[in-house]
Cryptochrome/photolyase family protein (Kushneria konosiri), 518 residues
Amino acid sequence: MSQPLIVILGDQLTEDLPVLTGAPENAPVALFEVEEEGRYVPHHPQKITFLFSAMRHFAQTLRQRGRQVHYTCLDDNDNTQDLISEAERVATLYGCDEIRVTRPGEWRLLDRIQKRRGNTPAWYMVADDRFFCSQEAFNQWAQGRQRFRMEHFYRWMRRETGLLMDENNNPQGEQWNFDHDNRKPLPRDVDPPEPPQHQPDQVTREVIALVEAHFGEHFGTLEKFNWPVTRRQALNDLNHFVEHALPFFGDYQDAISDQHPFLYHARLSGALNAGLLRPLEVCQAAENAWRDGSVPLNCAEGFIRQILGWREYVRGIYWLNMPDYKQRNDLKADRDLPAFYWTGDTDMRCLRRAIEMTRDHAYAHHIQRLMVTGNFALLCGVRPEALCDWYLAVYIDAYEWVELPNTLGMVLYADGGYLGSKPYCASGKYIDRMSDHCQQCRFDVKKSIGEDACPFNSLYWYFLERHEKQLAGNQRMKLIYGSLNKMSSDKREALREQAIRFLDQLDYEPAYGRGDHL
Ligand code: FAD
Ligand code: DLZ
């Protein structure tokens, strides 16, 4: 009789995964902490702590449910420190002739497993049912379409799931999208809710010590660790968000605060991506709050769109196009990452604060990722690989299936407009409108030239000028290219010189924050 080993990866911590529910009750279940996964990019210590602690708690839950669980700790003597070899070692140890695993979320690992074909014990991959849209369904949707747009996909998903639809299958409120009510700038007296506090228990405290000892050299601090490490804590965070922050989510979705890292955002991406929450229950919680009258429709819809729309869409794009997608660099960006991405040591207040928040919480919200660190890298011409490695390393929620399309596609426009219809490039004016950083910055956001001019301004015009050939034909860029072309050649030259001077004096440090082995 064949006996499978059920392998659960660190981002597969969902009790009713098909790989578990479909396995014989006496099949051993295995989880492995390994160095290799902590180091293929230098993951933030909070991300590693979050996953190891959540894995250890998940193993406890499985044992309480009567499962036989094998758990390899990072510092176990016989740990081979690699997921594939550890699974094969443990399968042999337990006399298992096959290994079953849920399809991994990163191509790198999928490829390695596929290359084990013919191996004994044999590997089998089971579909991941934690998404609204299967890869097959996405591929079918994509087939024959010249251009993809998230909005079309999202409307299809709304119809398919019935989320926020009325009895005639029309969108609630007779609109698909309430963006005109959203995206308000930050009010002066903003007072967002404090996230729930999770006191680290014994398990988490032990993991913190372990991670400090093994990955202490990675960028990021552990002092403010406050992520949910059990499903119960994650549900608590979800309820807290729906009650206290969701009612304002839409309004201040795009605002950036110098002091409040989380504003009215959910902080749920880590828990969602690791499997502690399912996207359906999160969307249903938001819809129910709207039905109860405690959350306005623009907020519930704006939030659901992020999960039902963007999250599913980027995953579909990732699997449809990997591995080639990762090689795209359509704007031929060739700079290394500025060194201050690993330190926060810059006078540009918006960048400093986004990086400090990242260091302290392994978190920055979407607009900081897109319009501050992302926009700056786009304007500088940072290589996709360098920027993608950074985003993959530093955020609590980062896995390639979601990080890569957001960074390479949405931020860097390196896929030539496949994911987004135009580059999200902006000058300092945008950051000034949406945040309270500029008042506290040594640079003057109103100036483009001179020692105290905001670097975003000259970089912005220099970027547009560099990429005129690729971008000027884009309908959505017409207005801005009109302005560039009306500019005197003296002004253009001064802006160009200012930007080049600035770029030349930056330090670039591609390998900072990585372990010696890399
Ligand atoms: P909220 O703003 O409250 O949004 C609610 C949920 O919607 C999130 O939890 C997330 O699950 C989903 N969501 C929102 N926007 C996106 C999006 N663009 N793509 C996918 N899901 C989205 N998200 C990740 O989960 N992992 C990543 O590695 C990641 N990398 C990113 C890199 C860049 C350059 C950019 C611009 C965005 C990235 N995002 C990533 C998307 C987004 O920034 C985060 O999901 C969000 O900031 C998480 O915080 P939150 O839970 O408070 O989200
Ligand atoms: C991110 C991560 C880290 C840091 N460590 C582990 C680990 O030790 N064991 C494990 O099973 N998973 C880990 N992960 C998550 C994996 O990297 C993730 O499962 C793959 O990238 C596929 O998405």
Notes: The first helix runs from residue 18 to 21. DSSP finds 21 helices and five strands in the chain. The chain has three domains: 4-126, 135-321, 339-505.
